[in-house]
Amino acid sequence: MESGLIQGPLYAVKPERVRAVKEAGKTGEILESRTAPATTPRGGTLLPRSQGMYPPDVPQVDLPRQKGVDKARAEGKKPKYTERMQNLLDSPTVRKKVDKLIAKGQDLGMQEWYGTEPLRQVALDVISPQQYESLMAQLASASQRNPVDQQNLMGSYLYYLQQQGKLDPEAVLLTNKLKEQGLEGISAPLIEFPEGYGSLAQSAIFERGKQIASGDIAGALPPEKKLGTFYRNLLGNLQPVTVDVNAVRGPVIEAGDPRWLTSKLVEKDEAGKVKNVYFPRQMVEEGEMSIREAKQRPGFWEAAPSGSEYAGFEDLWQRAARREGVAPAEAQALGWYGSADVTALKTKPELYVDNLERLLNRTAEVTGKSPLEVLRQFLKGEEFLKKAKGGSIDLEAEYRSGGAVLMKRGGSVGALPTKRK
């Protein structure tokens, strides 16, 4: 399932789209070796760009998808997709839209969004390659339903717990729901995210965090899944595509095909109470809503592909990448920012390492430490990234014994108590 799956050149030569690569003098080597480009260095004091943005030795290969898709790719054939997916791939309107989204992302300077080589170069002076992969796995896992800031806050905290030996395999995430149900009978270690570090997907992220801490990164982030693809993109394999909500909705909303409308949408408030229930596809079919009106409601459209359609959207963005002369993962990231006005993206336009560097500097301000000390502690798992307010949070161990919750400092299993004033 490795190099035999890759088809055709990784990058098409389109001068106006690959200036940065050409300036680095690497175009020929990249096309021949099929390794990620180390493009023009720029900016960065904590995470300098002098070694380029991508590791030079990561093979650029497709990741496993469905058996039929993998077989077709290995034989150099086109995979068989659903009718609506194939129609999307064949649509000139969609192709133009995807190219336009990529161009908009390029105008924002987001082509090297996945470039984490500056972080890796610094990290390997402080921690082992295995620790670095574990750090990146926790950060990638925490991206589920999170803007990038929140992803890195949560991921850094889970890595911190892991490195401190606090992420026990039997640990239970202490949620508001669990508090309401009562803690009687729970003997497992309890861990609570610091205030502001939780999210809608926190339970799933927490469970994967424990799996990553146990050393099972492949099990927590399998390569055939979206999060597993995202993790490997961050490690430098730019051939597979992380098909997220923007990668889906940008093209399907432009196409306006009612088959891509979701059959049911449930809107909830912050407390989880149902506010509204919609049936978008039925509403269009029965004339209650026009396609034009539906296009004004991004939430009415499918948010994720199903079955072979994941590979279909990957194919869509890989084809666009070849047209635009960029790596497939870069095309997806560019389109992610390019479709921000359509999908209400909550993440500001900045490269991934720029986001980390900003959060590291903010942590230094909050804690009163030097940025370099914060960076070192972050990499070693001695510190986690802080929010703008609230300062440092004391880590405490929380145990259950005889129905009473005992709070102790410095225990072997870490937990955070509810915030106290």
SSE layout:
Elements: H1 19-23, H2 27-33, H3 67-74, H4 83-90, H5 92-107, H6 117-123, H7 129-141, H8 148-163, E1 172-173, H9 176-181, E2 190-191, H10 202-213, H11 217-220, H12 226-234, H13 245-255, E3 265-268, E4 274-278, H14 280-285, H15 291-294, H16 309-324, H17 328-338, H18 340-343, H19 352-367, H20 371-380, E5 396-401, E6 404-409
Parallel strand pairs: 1-2
Antiparallel strand pairs: 3-4, 5-6
Structure, explained:
This protein is mainly alpha-helical. Helices cover 45% and strands 6% of the residues. Strands 1-2 form a two-stranded parallel ribbon. Strands 3-4 form a two-stranded antiparallel sheet. Helix 5 (92-107) packs across helix 16 (309-324). The longest helix is centred in the N-terminal third of the chain and has 16 residues, at 92-107. The chain is globular, with a radius of gyration of 23 Å.
Kindly summarize this structure in a few lines.
This protein is mostly helical. It is built from 20 helices and six strands.
What structural keywords apply?
421 residues, mainly alpha, 2 domains, two-stranded antiparallel sheet, 20 helices, 6% strand, globular, disordered N terminus
